[in-house]
């Protein structure tokens, strides 16, 4: 059975005449008649009753017409969906996002615009810190992620700038530092700090340590947290101080104070990062919308 035969049969029924169907399809009438007869022979039933003026459906023809109409609708839908998938308007996408970055209005705006542009795409968000996001993007487990410090020496990763974040010192409100704020990093030597393991985000960790070294500061690590949210919780509990993105203050309790330092002038680049060889049209569309929302400077 050929799609062409279904098309000819449906046209004959819709026009009520084989000759009119042939004219509408720009097909010779004998050719159309032959294809319908071939269809009937293959099915082993008579679909059309030939009348002096036109045609009529047999009982078998009426049932086949209902089924064939559905097949035609499914084919049209399949074609449309294939086109939508090829242009990134249909499909799925998995994204990584840190807990803190879920507070950023720019990310919410990107997701909102993408939803408006491609409402039939299913998006799944995974809350992960930057290091694990990079690992999962490389492994193909994430299509993209919003993260700090993409490894620039890795040609398999591409990225586009979304935002920049400043760093601040987070201290318990009842600490001496809240009453008498330090001005420079070196004043924090020997102070109990809440830190994070290097393995969590190596690029970020190394960048901070290089900056601290130039400022004459070596963190005294009293405790570690797995991510910024965990670190903030420990500061809230009065367990020490921490260097955190300024964005964390919007998540903090009143018992935590955020302080600027003169030489803590790092700007952390938040990027949308993806695997360079990921061919997904959905991803390409998402990247275009992200770039339009926050044009890189």
From TrEMBL:
<keyword id="KW-0238">DNA-binding</keyword>
<dbReference type="InterPro" id="IPR005119">
    <property type="entry name" value="LysR_subst-bd"/>
</dbReference>
<dbReference type="InterPro" id="IPR036390">
    <property type="entry name" value="WH_DNA-bd_sf"/>
</dbReference>
<dbReference type="InterPro" id="IPR000847">
    <property type="entry name" value="LysR_HTH_N"/>
</dbReference>
<keyword id="KW-0804">Transcription</keyword>
<keyword id="KW-0805">Transcription regulation</keyword>
<dbReference type="Pfam" id="PF03466">
    <property type="entry name" value="LysR_substrate"/>
</dbReference>
<feature type="domain" description="HTH lysR-type">
    <location>
        <begin position="1"/>
        <end position="58"/>
    </location>
</feature>
<dbReference type="InterPro" id="IPR036388">
    <property type="entry name" value="WH-like_DNA-bd_sf"/>
</dbReference>
<comment type="similarity">
    <text>Belongs to the LysR transcriptional regulatory family.</text>
</comment>
<dbReference type="Pfam" id="PF00126">
    <property type="entry name" value="HTH_1"/>
</dbReference>
<protein>
    <submittedName>
        <fullName>LysR family transcriptional regulator</fullName>
    </submittedName>
</protein>
